[in-house]
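PROTEIN–LIGAND DATA SHEET

This sheet pairs a single protein chain with one bound small molecule, magnesium ion, given as SMILES. Inputs appear in the order they were entered. The predicted three-dimensional arrangement of chain and ligand is reported afterwards as a token string under its own label.
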Amino acid sequence: MGISKPRILIADDQQDVLAALRLLLKGEGYETESASSPAAVLTALESRDFDAALMDLNYARDTTSGQEGLDLLCKIQALDSALPVIVMTAWGSVDLAVEAMRRGARDFLQKPWENARLLTVVRTQIELGQALRRGQRLEAENRLLRAEGRPTLIAEAPSMRPALDLIERIGPSDANVLVTGENGTGKGVVAQALHAVSGRCARPLITVNTGGLPEGVFESELFGHVKGAFTDARTDRVGRFELADGGTLFLDEISNITPAQQAKLLRVLEMGEFERVGSSKTRKVDVRILSATNSDLGAEVRAGRFREDLLFRLNTIEIRLPPLRERREDIPLLAAHFLRIYAQRYRKPLTGFESAAMQVILDHPWPGNVRELDHAIERAVLMAQSGSVRASDLALRAGREGAPRLEDMSLEEVESFLIKKALARYQGNVSQAAGALGLSRSALYRRIQRYGL
Ligand SMILES: Nc1ncnc2c1ncn2[C@@H]1O[C@H](COP(=O)(O)OP(=O)(O)OP(=O)(O)O)[C@@H](O)[C@H]1O
Ligand SMILES: [Mg+2]
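PREDICTION REPORTED AS:
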């Protein structure tokens, strides 16, 4: 296939038929190989790939029934079901041709054949066979992708549609992608999904948590260093850019890097080149950059804290992940997903949530998004004692408010709230609660009375 000539196996026990076919097909630019018995056909198919087989159904031992040819067809099917087989039958044996098609032959010709028709049939079958093989290859690749590496990304909510569309459309390209969203919305999962659907998926996805790295560490982490570059550099070190060569580099928490770090990063993104710390040798890498942040980089640019030219390099495409409270449809699916994972991990025979528990989950505002839900379900699985998770297994308050926000409360409300918490923590023991709050016992008693606790 490709630029090489298509190769056709021709099989017949009559030498003059083989010679005529060879001549005809060679003249059309095909490569041929001949076989004069069913055994020779199988040997040929086992030793090399063919784009099509053109075979007679009758062989020497039994020249009329075609039984040998039909048996051969079954064996070919078992060897290579994608190989297009065209059978040749004697005039008037249409029944035999039909039986051959039933056993996997793709088309048939009656002898003596018409050259033009034979060539059309051969060309069509070769094209169909190549398409079929491509399909099988894709299918196999997809199976691999699904099995390995491809992260679970649950996203049925309409508000996730734009993100999913972008992953599908942009994932396979080399475009740099900036993933934005609140903490725990799944930015890391999206980076994995982008890498998994790309042509780079067989190469590594390297993640660097760029936030908060001190200057020296940042450089040697990303670019590597050579022995002796600084006091602690006892050996050469390969940086993340080199590790990711041919693959994908995921720069997580990108907004927290210093201006000097931004300048260094910009240079690699613009030129694709860098030096290891302490070396003057310029290295080139082929890396796709994904990055993520939970801050508004546009605002960081306006505030003069983030370079605009660097932002333009990073956000060729931006994927915004909505907070969980804006994709409530996914909450039950995610909860069930985490339940399955943790029930298996902790070997708990849990099958689902009691309806009151599901109600509590649905009512919670999830300020920590999917990660908070993940942790809450893990905790609930550990707590659960029956076959399903109960509301009491979830360390969540019922009601839409969750914990009140301090800034919305008056001073007295805050005081009363903290006292209630302290009393709950010490199971109503006033002395201990007073100690924890920094109050005398009597001062605490006065407040308990005032607030009617
Ligand atoms: N759509 C999803 N489907 C399944 N699991 C998800 C999904 N989104 C997030 N998760 C899971 O939730 C957890 C948090 O996700 P992730 O670490 O990707 O969030 P993040 O946005 O990178 O958070 P942070 O801002 O804190 O880095 C992970 O365990 C991840 O596997
Ligand atoms: Mg993350």
